[in-house]
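Here's what a typical entry looks like (P-loop containing nucleoside triphosphate hydrolase protein):
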Amino acid sequence: MADNTGPEVLGVGWCRTGTSSLKVALDILGFGPCFHGRFIPYLPEFRKQCYAYGVGQRKDFPVHQLFDEYKAAVDIPAGLIPVLLDAYPTAKVILTVRNPETWYASVQDVIVRLHRWVLRPFFWTTQLGRQYTAIIGWGLDYMFKGDLSKENCVRAFNMHTEEVKSRIPEERLLIWRPQDGWEPLAKFLGMPVPSTPFPPPQNEGSREMLKQIGRFIKRHPLASMGMRVYDHSGPLDFDAV
């Protein structure tokens, strides 16, 4: 375990806004280890605590126990963003953003469909499935308050952007897109601009989530049946990721 006292950098952009690119960039700039949501399948204690917090079994989240070892954290479950901002009040904050319409299309294709048609009805048959369902469901409920319509999701996305801008002092906040590249990111963090090209777009987070869910579905007949019966919006190719 790294000897850190908590993240110096918090990425508070929602999933599908370039969080994987930000994670790679932060690692290169020396802000590793960097937490990313794609690690969750391999962090049983994190899943356990997220599940307990998300379903209301505990009122506090052991943020220092789970995050103090990291030098940065991005792709944080949405319901934990306020918790981390409170726990690490001097951390620099990076808000990854993208066009709300294209963001919604990306989220709808990968996350919302899986939760709506597959996770809720069938994943409660195993502990891992229950944890996945609770964490993703909790995040969606936190972000969208139960309304997964395009209009509401886009509104919530824009509200999150404005809430972060109003909460975080200007000197601690960078609003950033992967296409902005190294210069604003390095300047904000007080680091020299790397000589290496900026990393190309990263999709490991979504690929890892789909691989994990795909393995689960292939191992559990009820979930596999649920994919065929309930997902009327078209198949997700788990083997292609």
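Residues 9-240 form a domain with the Rossmann fold fold (CATH 3.40.50.300).

More examples are in the samples folder.
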